[in-house]
Specification:
This protein is α/β, with parallel strands linked by helices and 282 residues long. The protein has two domains: 169 residues, HUPs (Rossmann fold); 96 residues, Pantoate-beta-alanine ligase, C-terminal domain (Pantoate--beta-alanine Ligase, Chain: A,domain 2, 2-Layer Sandwich), CATH 3.30.1300.10. Helices cover 37% and strands 21% of the residues. The protein has ten helices and nine strands. The strands form two sheets. Strands 1-4-3-2-5-6 form a six-stranded parallel beta sheet, sandwiched between helices. Strands 7-8-9 form a three-stranded antiparallel beta sheet, covered by helices on one side. The N and C termini lie far apart (54 Å).
C-alpha cells in the first residue's frame, strides 16, 4: 500500500494512473462498515484509494472532534490486509491551504433531518469531499447507506458540479444485535451497544406496521417513541418518515419511496440509523 501525505505527491501519483479508481473518504477509526466499502471498490475498480482525514469543519464546537476515536495503527493494518492501493493521509494544512477553495451551493437537503440538529455539518462535508474529489479524481466513489442523507447530498453535489464520478451506495453493516456499525460505537461499552440495538428494533417495528398497511406517520412515529422510551438511557433527537427525493416529512403515506430515519442519544453518544421503504399504499 502506498501512503501519501501531501497534495502535490498525490497529484503527481494520480497523473501516472490511467485506469478506474475507486475512492472511499473516511474520518478514520475504521470498522467493518468502512471495510465493506473498500471491498466493493476492489470488486469494481482496478485501483482503490482511501483517505483518512478528521475534518474539523463538519464538527460544531460542542461536538466530539477532540475525542473522536484515533485508531490509526489499526486502520493501517486493516487497509494493508485488504490490499488497498493508496492511502491519502493529509493534515489540515494540506487540505485547507494547499488546495483550491471550492464553491458548493447550499442545498435544501442541508436543512432537513441531520441538518436541523447539526446545521454546520453538510457545509463541512461537501466542502471537504469536493476538495478530495479534486485531488483524487476518482472514477467511482463509495458511500454507505447508514448516512443516507449524506449519500443523497453527495449525489446531488456530483451532479451539480458535473463531476464524472459514479457514486456507488453500499448497504448498512450491522453487528449481531442489529446496531448499525459506526466509529462512535467505540464510545459505548458492550452492554451499551446491546441496549443501542433497540434503535434498530424500533425501526423494524415501523417497517412491520407499514407492511401491515399502516399509513399514518404519526402512529408509526409513536410506535418508535414508545419502544425507545422503555430504555431510560436512550433519548430521541428525531424520528422522521420522509420522501426519499426531498426529505420532506410525509403526512399521509401513498405510493412513494420513503426514508425512515432517526438519531438517538445514548448518554451523549449520538447514533443514527435508517431504512428505505417503497410504499404500496393506495
Amino acid at each position: 500500500m502506498k501512503l501519501i501525505k501531501t497534495v502535490d505527491e498525490f497529484i503527481s501519483w494520480r497523473n501516472q494512473q490511467s485506469t478506474s479508481i475507486g475512492f472511499i473518504p473516511t474520518l478514520g477509526a475504521l470498522h467493518n462498515g468502512h471495510l465493506s466499502l473498500i471491498r466493493a471498490s476492489k470488486k469494481q475498480c482496478k485501483i482503490t484509494a482511501v483517505s483518512i482525514f478528521l475534518n474539523p469543519t463538519q464538527f460544531a464546537p460542542n461536538e466530539d472532534l477532540s475525542s473522536y476515536p484515533n485508531t490509526l495503527e489499526q486502520d493501517l493494518e486493516s487497509l494493508r490486509k485488504l490490499k488497498v492501493d493508496v492511502l491519502f493521509l493529509p493534515n489540515q494544512q494540506e487540505m485547507y491551504q494547499k488546495t483550491d477553495a471550492v464553491n458548493i451551493s447550499a442545498s435544501e437537503l442541508f436543512k432537513k433531518l441531520e441538518g436541523k440538529s447539526r446545521p454546520h455539518f453538510f457545509y463541512g462535508v461537501t466542502n471537504i469531499v469536493a476538495r478530495l474529489f479534486n485531488i483524487i479524481k476518482p472514477s467511482h466513489t463509495f458511500f454507505g447507506e447508514k448516512d443516507a442523507q449524506q449519500l443523497y447530498i453527495i449525489r446531488e453535489m456530483i451532479n451539480k458540479m458535473k463531476y464524472k464520478i459514479i457514486l456507488v451506495p453500499c448497504p448498512i453493516i450491522r453487528d449481531q444485535n442489529g446496531l448499525a456499525l459506526s466509529s462512535r460505537n467505540q464510545y459505548l461499552t458492550k452492554s451499551e451497544q446491546k441496549k443501542a440495538s433497540i434503535i434498530y428494533q424500533g425501526l423494524m417495528h415501523i417497517k412491520n406496521h407499514l407492511n401491515n398497511g399502516e399509513t399514518n406517520p404519526k402512529i408509526l412515529k409513536k410506535i418508535f417513541i414508545k419502544i425507545i422510551s422503555e430504555t431510560d438511557e436512550l433519548r430521541i433527537d428525531y424520528i422522521s418518515i420522509a420522501y426519499i427525493n426531498t426529505l420532506e416529512e410525509v403526512y399521509k403515506i401513498n405510493d412513494e419511496q420513503l426514508l425512515i430515519s432517526t438519531a438517538v442519544f445514548l448518554r451523549d453518544v449520538r447514533l443514527i440509523d435508517n431504512f428505505t421503504y417503497l410504499s404500496s399504499a393506495i
